Every structure is written in structure tokens, then in C-alpha cells.
Amino acid sequence: MVSDYYSATLIDHFEHPRNAGVMEGADAEAYVTNPVCGDSLRLYLRIDDGRVTAASFLSSGCPASIATSSAATELLVGLSLAEAEALPRERYAEAVGGLPKSKVHCSVLAASAVRQAIATWRQGREAAGPPAHGE
User: Fold this and answer.
1) Separation between Cα atoms, residue 17 and residue 11, nearest integer Å
2) Distances (CA, A) of 12 to 37, 106, 125, 130
3) What is the pLDDT of residues 15-71, one digit of tens each?
4) CA gap 87, 123 in Å, rounded
5) What is the maximum alpha-carbon separation in the chain?
6) Which CATH code of 3.90.1010.10, 3.40.630.10, 3.90.1530.10, 3.30.2290.10 fits the domain covering 2-126?
């Protein structure tokens, strides 16, 4: 039975995902996939003054993958970029009430997407150079 395998929190995030969908005007985006199981996550972030102000996702995969992606969007809002990057995969697993050993890769997917999105955002900022006077 699924409820014996997953926590009530995980089931709730799977059945009622938070912040699902494309974020128009996102400041950062990442796409990660697990080639072994086929789960994928596209994460969108809005960043203002060095903090995550909004997050959304598109995910394809098992219930644990979708739930972990949903929980990640809630965890990230309000964090500084350094805090978001420092979140270990265990924190994503805790946010859904834990993951069975066979589903730990779902929390790794979320952590990887966050780090990739922030790294891409930083690279874009560096490539753009310093802001013009008055920006």
C-alpha cells in the first residue's frame, strides 16, 4: 500500500503539488534528470537582492520525485542564495516526512537542481558585467 511506503506529507505534496508550473520571467532555471530512473525536474527561481523570492517546478517521475520537487519550492522561498545552495539533500527528504532508501535519489535531484539554477544565474550575472551607472 502506498501510504505504508510514503509519509502523509509526501502523499499530500504529490496529490496537491505546491508551485507547480512554468514561472514566467524567472531569473534562474535548471533542468536535471536521473538517467537511471528517468525522473526529471525543471526548477524556476525568482531572485531579488540575493534571496529566493519565488520558486516553481515541472517534474516528471514517481510520487516521491514530484513531492520532493514541490517541497523544495516551499523550502527555498526566503533563503539567501548561499543558504539555498547549502541545503543538503537530507533536508529535502525531511520536508516530505522522509524517503525510503530506494527513493533517496529524488532528494538528490532537488538539491542538484537548486545548485544548478543558482550557478547558472551567477554565470549570467558575471557575463553581463557590472551594472551601468543608475541601474
Assistant:
1) 10
2) 22, 16, 37, 44
3) 999 999 999 999 999 999 998 889 999 999 999 999 999 999 999 999 999 999 999
4) 20
5) 61
6) 3.90.1010.10
DSSP string, 54-81: EEEEEEES-HHHHHHHHHHHHHHTT-BH
Domain assignments of the chain as residue spans, ordered by start: 2-126
pTM of the model as a whole: 0.89
Q: What angle do CA 56, 16, 94 make, to 5 degrees?
A: 75
Output the CA angle 36-69-67, nearest 5 degrees. Answer: 90
**What tens digit of pLDDT does each residue of 66-93 get?**
999 999 999 999 999 999 999 999 999 9
